[in-house]
Amino acid sequence: MDIATTPSNPAGNPEMADAAVEPHDPATIRRKDYTPPSWLVPEIRLDFDLGVELTKVVATMRVERNPAGDGDQTLHLCGDNIAVMSLKVDGESAEGWSMSGSNLLLPLPGAAHTVTIETHLHPATNSQLMGLYASNGMLCTQCEAEGFRRITFFPDRPDVLSKYTVRMEGPKDLFPVLLSNGNLADQGDNGDGTHWALWDDPWPKPSYLFALVAGQLVANRDTFTTMGGRKVDLAVWVREGDLERTDHAMRSLINSMKWDEDTFGREYDLDQFNIVAVSDFNMGAMENKGLNIFNTRYVLADPETATDGDYDGVEGVVGHEYFHNWSGNRVTCRDWFQLSLKEGFTVLRDQMFSADMGSEPVKRIEDVRILRAAQFPEDSGPLAHPIRPDSYQEISNFYTATVYNKGAEVIRMMHTMAGAEAFRKGTDLYFDRHDGEAATCEDFIKAMEDGAGLDLAQFRLWYEQAGTPKVAMRTTFDQSQGAVTLHLEQKVPATPGQADKRPMPIPLKIALFDRDSGSHDGEKLLVLDKAKDSFTFDGFTRPPVVSVNRGFTAPIQLDAEVLDEDLMFLAAHDDDAFARYEALQQLVTRELLGAIEHGPDEKRRAAIAEAMGAVLDDPAIDDLMRGELLMLPTITFLMELAAPADPVALHMARERLKAHIGTRLRDRLIAIHERTSAVPYSLDAAARGARKVKTLALVLLTAADKKEAAARAEAQYRAANNMTDRQGALMVLAGIDCPARTELLADFHARFAGNALVIDKWFALQAGSLDPKVLDNVAALASHADFTIKNPNRVRSLYMTLAGNPAAFHDESGRGYRMIADLVLALDPINAQTAARFIPALGRWRKIEPKRAAMMRGELERIAASPTLSKDTREQVTKSLDG
Ligand code: B3K
Ligand code: ZN
Fold first, then answer.
1. How far is the CA of 533 from the centre of ligand 1 (A)?
2. Does the beta carbon of 322 lie inside 6 Å of ligand 1?
3. Ligand 1 closest atom vs CA 287
4. Which of 4, 250, 458, 653 has a CA that sits 20 to 30 A from residue 775's CA?
5. Are both 157 and 293 inside the same structural domain?
């Protein structure tokens, strides 16, 4: 389907219309306005009469006045796109209730009542994928953050915790499997083709953790016995043909459960743990209590259809959702401003888990790359916000790299300052103190102070201030004293709504290397907590080489006055793998930023090629790490440093440097491609490393000589017995104008026809390629029979990949910008959450050279002019124009 011809709001479809009903000036919700709920709901029973077209819901709530509330006698129940079919209080038809917008107001005298509400839902037309919706004939839910109000009227806020009992009933043929949170309490057959199940969740939870699934599913089953001896039945539920691709998810789940016991002392607390894979899903996965719902992308993996990166994604996301059982579910958030309390902490936990399951330094490099590519641009742009935001219009817009990834970095700094043992004491205290509660970031900080023994008074600024701190460093050497002094200065840049910033505590691990021996006398931790400070170390006969922010202990931008020679020294000798990587990245960054100003620096280019050559040859480096060292910095990262940037010029400089390296190291790259091609497929680190290096060698060779590399890539594709090699080869070929390109793209499509996740790759390979005709190709792909705007994975595979392809998105014609804006306008009425996610790409206009900036801004204005925008997109586009 061509998005340009998609009707934006087909008449008569209430689900398609509901994103557009908000007025132009949506209310801003502020953190400082928090008040406790007036009414609590200690218990709720939900009765579902299931159908794809029509599902009837009866919610029976026990409501009690909150002694800590403001005494408001009116029960405020949120609703969204639902209507009251019947309403009873204590068994009697209710009177005196009213609607305020989409919310229900029910005045109640007395202290406790039973409120019963019936609502009718239409899952098949719920294209927003929030609340209860249908995906391939199956029913499933997504409630975080505010989807429960699309199912029934409820105080839909995370500080209202209830015990849920859920009974669901429906036709056996359509819904043979009936799942909800907690433990299965009972089930039965009605003898008329319908059946029912009763689920009971003993743990009080907020409404955003409610979940229900009904459909034709099969399970990969296993068990796990917890450290306390509880036997837990595990199941990964998928559609029938997918069962053989679920083993990695199951293994990842079992590893997560064990790891959380060993590392954080956290034990699972139900008799069952279910994971369900759904192909229509707005994000990666959702941690609903005992019933995690996943995007198929993070469940299904086998060697033929999933890359090594996909395997890592499954492991990381399965871990992440499982870890939420404690950091999110047992201790939840008081309000949505506290989102990083669960997300930042849980990202840190999943990062630590993946590091322990694989290579710690490689994982650290990957995490920092994501931070720099996704969070740094956010933190320096119009949508910048602190990890604990002060206000929002639409909370869905705050599931950001800042809340998640910077949030994780902030807690990682606590870990660095406290050390592993004290950090664990802090988290133990946090879980003990707040188990069963809806907590705040402040509660977490306090538990860290009390349990880990940290003084975090000034550190709290990391929660309050947005913006990536910039740290400048220069060194001086006093020959007579044999002393080196590091002069450090920090600046936290102004961000929207925060003009003046205070200095923050910045923990920096450093090492001072002796130039002759190539060693140092131990790592030290400095904390820069003033705007300016100096740190002196003696005992040197000549100036040492300084290695700073080793392991990326602080999420900052470091601007160090360091000679190229010193960077080369660190690239060759640093014993901290991250610092070694970083030195090489800095050298490359320096070269690329210089190249767009005044052409390449021959001496530095030669030094880079030499350092890369050493990386290829060094037997002490494993292939997984070698792959990291061979990757050049991303364009988004470089754009941060070059602003206002010409992204295409940067991209071309980067391609030229790749060509230079590929030419200089041709023979060694060919040798390494051949060595790694001989390694048989397995999932162990050595074989995965070999595959990583294989394609990276091919990428560098391609930059140097496309024709020669095309033959090598074609051979790699034809010999491939796994998706990593196949996708790597096709990625290279997709950027080369050669007959194999067309033939093998067609082969790939035919080979994997019907496998949605692989067809997503097929779209992405073309939208992300170096082919100069990418924009024509994307336009054609939008009309391909396999394209649908209704499936978020498919939309992302085509358009998010385009938005991340610098040469195509920033094409000087402005067509790339126009295509993204057209998509936003077409998608917004269908799936507002996903549409709003495309705005930040255009919102970066201030960092781009003026001609392109004007076109990007023009597209934002065109979007803003639409009178029917969703609250999601309206907030993002307005801030991107004004912020
Ligand atoms: N908590 C969910 C995200 C929900 C997003 C809602 N827009 C997944 C996660 O972070 O684990
Ligand atoms: Zn999460």
1. 40
2. no
3. 11
4. 653
5. no
Looking at the structure, tell me whether residues 255 and 344 fall in a common domain: no
Beta bridge partners of 170: 195
What pLDDT is recorded for position 320? 99
Percent of the chain with pLDDT over 90: 97
Residue 207 and residue 65 share a domain: yes
Can you say whether residue 536 is alpha, beta or left, with left for phi > 0 and alpha for psi between -120 and 50 degrees? beta
Asked if 147 and 39 sit in the same domain, the reply is: yes
CA 287 to ligand 2 center in whole angstroms = 7
Taking only the tens place, the pLDDT of each residue in 95-140 is 999 999 999 999 999 999 999 999 999 999 999 999 999 999 999 9
Atom from ligand 1 closest to the CA of residue 395: 7
Answer yes or no: is 736 within a domain.
Answer: no
Query: pLDDT grade, residue 643 (50/70/90)?
Result: confident
When pLDDT is averaged across residues 470-496 and rounded to a whole number, the result is 98
Instruction: Bin 123: left if φ > 0, else alpha if -120 < ψ < 50, else beta.
Output: alpha
pLDDT above 60 for 47: yes
Average pLDDT estimate for 149-156: 99
Which residues span the domain enclosing 178?
1-130+138-215
Average model confidence (pLDDT) across the chain: 96
Q: Residue 872 CA: which ligand is closest?
A: 1
Q: What's the domain count of the chain?
A: 5
Find all residues with CB under 8 Å of 92, minimum gap 6, and list them.
none
Question: From atom 5 of ligand 1, which residue's Cα is the shortest distance away?
Answer: 144
What's the confidence (pLDDT) of residue 266? 99
pLDDT of amino acid 25: 56
Would you say 512 and 545 are in contact if contact means Cβ atoms under 8 Å apart? yes
Ligand 1 pocket, 321 CB below 6 A?
Answer: yes
Point out the domain boundary residue: 665, 688, 704.
704
Q: Are 199 and 64 in a shared domain?
A: yes
Q: Does 826 reside within a domain? A: no
Is residue 727 domain-resident?
Answer: no
Calculate how far, in angstroms, residue 351's C-alpha sits from the geometric centre of ligand 2: 12
The CATH number of whichever domain residue 401 belongs to comes to 1.10.390.10
My answer on whether 177 and 297 are in the same domain is no
Q: What is the pTM of this model?
A: 0.97
According to DSSP, the β-strands at 183-189 and 92-93 are unpaired
Same domain? For 635 and 664 the reply is: yes
Catalytic residue positions, numbered: 321
Q: From atom 3 of ligand 1, which residue's Cα is the shortest distance away?
A: 286
Q: CA-CA distance, 715 to 679, in Å (whole number)?
A: 15
What number of CA atoms fall less than 13 Å from residue 729's CA on the CB side? 26
